[in-house]
Amino acid sequence: MTIAISLKDLRKVYANGTEALKGISLDVEQGDFFALLGPNGAGKTTIIGIISTLVNKTAGNVEVFDKRVDTHIYETKLDLGVVPQEINFSQFEKVQDIVMTQAGYYGLPRKLASQRCEKYLRKLGLWEKRSERSRSLSGGMKRRLMIARALVHEPRLLILDEPTAGVDIELRRSMWEFLTEMNNKGTTIILTTHYLEEAEQLCRNIAIIDDGEIIENTSMKSLLADLDSQVFILDSATEIPAQLNLDLPNISLYRIDGHSFEVTVTGDQSINEVFSRLDQQGVKVNSMRNKTNRLEQLFLARLRDN
Amino acid sequence: MFANHKLIAFETIVIKEVRRFSRIWLQTLVPPVIMITLYFVIFGNMVGRRIGEMGGFQYMEFIVPGLIMMSVIQNSYSNVVSSFFSHKFQRSIEELLVSPVPNYVILTGFIAGGMARGLAVGAIVTVTAMFFTDLSIQYPLLTIAVILLTSIVFSLAGFINAVFANSFDDISIIPTFVLTPLIYLGGVFYSSQLLPPFWRIVSGLNPIFYMVNTFRYGILGSSDVNIYWAFLILGVFIVVLYSSCIWLLRRGTGIRS
Ligand SMILES: Nc1ncnc2c1ncn2[C@@H]1O[C@H](COP(=O)(O)OP(=O)(O)OP(=O)(O)O)[C@@H](O)[C@H]1O
Ligand SMILES: [Mg+2]
To answer: Which of A11, A12, A14, A87 to mutate to test ligand 1, by most ligand atoms within 8 A of the CB atom?
Structure first.
């Protein structure tokens, strides 16, 4: 089994004193589709910055396919493609020139470079736009341009920093498909995201990072298994009795006011049962909604555990 | 990275740089020509006729080498400082930093870009000058050598300026407050023979004085300075500036956090 990337006790203190990473250790296997999930300011971009040498580490070690990035600069960089969180191409250049220039930086001969350029611009739906200045692209197109640019040297490891932030649902789906296809063909993919749904759709393994520390590093499956409680808010047309008790295992109730209450359901308790008991007690439910998204719950649960 | 890959990367940077200053030719190639034409008309022609001779030549002939040198210096410097700074500003420098291009290829690529613009403008100015005076070059090889080396020196200097610059103000401070005075006091418009002894010694501390005079020697065959000294100075500047640039790139000053 080959490790695509290995981080060992990575620490970063920025010049202004911010301690962004407090000892991050992480292994991602070759062929994996890995999610790095965490709130704003958790340190995700800093990790990617250190891997791609845009950020100088304070301590620790990064290995890409068993080679240290600071000693095997060329080999490790050839294996790595990075799609940054923020736009970082010249706004005055043409779409095609941006990709061709990147190919040149990787030493691709012109003919091969233009083949690859066409291949990836077509794949990402940008071929028609190839002669336009990048400034005139929409936000979603700019993201796709950065993906095409990162792929032009066909790296074995692709890292995407919030690739779907600010991208509409349709485009997000097509990006997911594209990335899944890349992964099926053998590219190891790491992406950062704020959305558990995205990680859930795409990734096999996940690390959750908060405040510069990894608080969870596990498979998507086992993470979701822990996430089996849901909270609903129910509104009733009739006045809710003060002493409402459904007498069901795995269900707890909390009365918010005379007409609404919270129900927490854990395990595989059926919700039907909840409704029929409420009916027996004369409570007529006329609407129901999910209280929190599961990611929030997950964070809260993990932060409580820590 | 293999040698041929490095060569491709180098070419890529140079082509990108040339494309940049050609795209904005109205800002990069036209202004120096207009400025130099005005110098020729006003100083060379109108004022120059009153002045008569300078250093043994017609005043117009005397200032032509200085004006060519001035445009090469200013344009080499300004191309590298504004291009590298705008790469920093737009963050497109990250494209280079994540790629396997070695630091010395990055540096020489930008320097070649600066030289391309400096020499292009120098050539345009030379052609313009031919409309005003007969130009014959006494020592062509020496003339070319000194202009190439000078262009390298100021491209490197522009690079250092860009590394430290944090705003658009920072890229115009050095050209305005350091470079322009040194050029004007570097013997472009007068022979140091006219200066009182004290100021002649002060002129001797100005590196541009040596470059302008050596270039003038190449074209007219007469100089206020020792030519060997001038080449030594150029050589020392190139070595020191180049090493400093490489050191700054390796540290990531201004480009890696
Ligand atoms: N160049 C910098 N100088 C100083 N502090 C920085 C710098 N870049 C990031 N930080 C700080 O480091 C911490 C981690 O930031 P980072 O950008 O890595 O977070 P993130 O997980 O990518 O967040 P987001 O989800 O918002 O993108 C934050 O506190 C941030 O303010
Ligand atoms: Mg980030």
So the answer is: A14
Per the CB < 8 Å rule, is A53 touching B5? no
Q: CA A42: distance to chain centroid?
A: 13
Q: Are both A218 and A243 inside the same structural domain?
A: no
Mean pLDDT of chain B: 90
A180 and A46 share a domain?
A: yes
Round the average pLDDT of chain A to a whole number and report it. 88
Does residue A20 have its Cβ closer than 6 Å to ligand 1?
A: yes
**Could you tell me if A146 and A25 lie in one domain?**
yes
- Helices B3-23 and B103-130: angle between axes, nearest 10 degrees: 40
Which residues of B are less than 8 Å from A56 in CB distance? Answer: 252, 256-257
Q: Provide the CATH number for the domain around residue A244.
A: 3.30.70.1560
Provide the 10 A C-beta neighbour count for residue A186: 9
* CB-based contact A31:A189 (threshold 8 Å): no
Closest partner CB to B252 (pick from A52, A56, A77): A56
Nearest one of A185, A183, A186, A109 to A153, comparing CA atoms: A109
Least confident of A85-89, A107-111, B11-15, B177-181: B177-181
Q: Return the pLDDT at A262.
A: 82
Chain B hits for A101, CB-CB cut-off 8 Å, are 12, 16, 95
pLDDT of the residue at B189: 82
The number of folded domains in chain A is 2
Decide whether any atom of ligand 1 lies within 6 Å of the A218 Cβ: no
Does A17 contact ligand 1 (Cβ within 6 A)?
no
Q: Do A102 and B99 touch (CB under 8 A)?
A: yes
Is there a contact between B213 and B203 (Cβ–Cβ < 8 Å)? Answer: no
Cβ contacts of residue B120 below 8 Å, gap of 6+? B21, B29, B75
For residue A28, give its domain range. 3-225
pLDDT-derived band at A228 (thresholds 50, 70, 90) equals low
Domain definitions of chain B by residue range: 3-251
Select from B84, B75, B130, B76 the least CA-distant residue to B106: B84
| Chain A residues closer than 8 Å to B21 by CB | none
Are residue A247 and residue A259 in the same domain, yes or no? yes
pLDDT at res. A295: 63
Q: What whole-number distance in Å separates Cα of residue A18 and Cα of residue A10?
A: 15
| pLDDT tens-place string over residues B103-152 | 999 999 999 999 999 999 999 999 988 888 888 888 999 999 999 999 99
| B250 touching chain A per CB within 8 A | no
A59 Cβ partners below 8 Å, 6+ apart?
Answer: A9, A10, A11
Where residue A95 falls (left for φ over 0; alpha for ψ -120 to 50; beta otherwise) is alpha
